[in-house]
Amino acid sequence: MHLEDGITIAFDNRELLSGICGANDGNLKIIEGTLGGFITARGNEIHFESQDKAASKRFKAMMDNLAAAVKDGELPSPEYVRALAEETPISNESMIQIPHGFNRVYPRTKNQAAYIQGMRENEICFCVGPAGTGKTYLAIAYALQMLLSKKIRKLVLTRPVVEAGENLGFLPGDLAQKIDPYLKPLYDAMESLVPYDVINRMEETRSIEIAPLAYMRGRSLNDCMIILDEAQNTTKEQMKMFLTRIGNGARAVITGDTTQIDLHRKSDSGLLNALDILREIEGLSFSFLHTSDVARNPLVKKIIQAYNENEK
């Protein structure tokens, strides 16, 4: 079969091909959606039909990579396949392996890979981007890797409470119950990465702490990882207060979306201010994700683009 018409690859056995294809051929559907063309698998052979020579060569390279992973005892996840299909650099540095986790976490885009690298190499990392780009998800994944590998003693989750018409003091329940709705996105990310009993155990041993940003004043956080989510809604004073809480052996990830500032004046945003005045400090990392990095339902990317065009 000529590359111009497509390519056929024969594997050692059916089991190897089955591992590559994934559940209900889900991995093949991802590859088709990215490369175009048409894929058929039968017995121990797989055929990729395409008039695009470059796409056929990419398909061959992907099959080699996936076959090697299956032979090593792995079942390639959809995230891994998407990263391969989108030609994201996949290496030990860009992959996140969480002890007791469901799957390895791979970046879907080059910007996400750079974000992971920034978290690994710097004590304080800022990540700015629109909804759905993986800002919070990747931060939680990296934090769980650090915590469950015992490289840090605690994970602290915090965010500013900025909601119209509501105040923590008037909400029912204790502090954890009051702040829980605000931190639900962080818990959603954790529940998709590790079993619930692992989260339960970390809560029982107080390895995870949740706190509204206002309660961070006066503390010194050592040997832990702190994630500040929705940082665009911090004030300048809150951001300064937060950054000066970071103690010895601690790491911090600050995530936010500068297009969704809920403060009365956008110019008061502590995130915007920090991006402006801290850029030149060594040891800080700044990652910027864009619409092209959206990893949720493909419709989300189109929705964000439509809103952006309307605002222009």
Determine the fraction of residues in helical runs and give it as a percent range: 40-55%
Structural class: alpha/beta
Number of helices: 11
Please write the string of helix (H) and strand (E) elements. EHHEEHHHEHEHHEEHEHEH
Q: How would the global form be characterised? A: globular
Question: What's the count of strands?
Answer: 9
* Strand portion: 15-25%
Amino- and carboxy-terminal Cα gap = 50 Å
Low-pLDDT runs of 5+ residues are none
Mean model confidence by pLDDT: 83
Quaternary:
single chain
Largest sheet: 6 strands, parallel
Spatial extent as radius of gyration: 22 Å
Side by side, the strands of the main sheet go 6-5-7-8-4-9
Q: How is the topology of this model organized?
A:
Elements: E1 6-10, H1 14-21, H2 26-35, E2 38-42, E3 45-49, H3 53-71, H4 78-85, H5 110-121, E4 124-128, H6 135-148, E5 154-159, H7 175-193, H8 196-204, E6 208-212, E7 224-228, H9 236-243, E8 251-256, H10 270-277, E9 284-288, H11 298-311
Parallel strand pairs: 4-8, 4-9, 5-6, 5-7, 7-8
Antiparallel strand pairs: 1-3, 2-3
Task: Describe this structure as you would to a colleague.
The chain has 11 helices and 9 strands. It is α/β, with parallel strands linked by helices and 312 residues long. It has a 6-stranded parallel β-sheet. Strand 7 (224-228), helix 9 (236-243) and strand 8 form a beta-alpha-beta unit. Helix 1 (14-21) crosses helix 3 (53-71) and helix 6 crosses helix 7 (175-193). The longest helix is centred in the first third of the chain and has 19 residues, at 53-71. The relative contact order is 0.13.
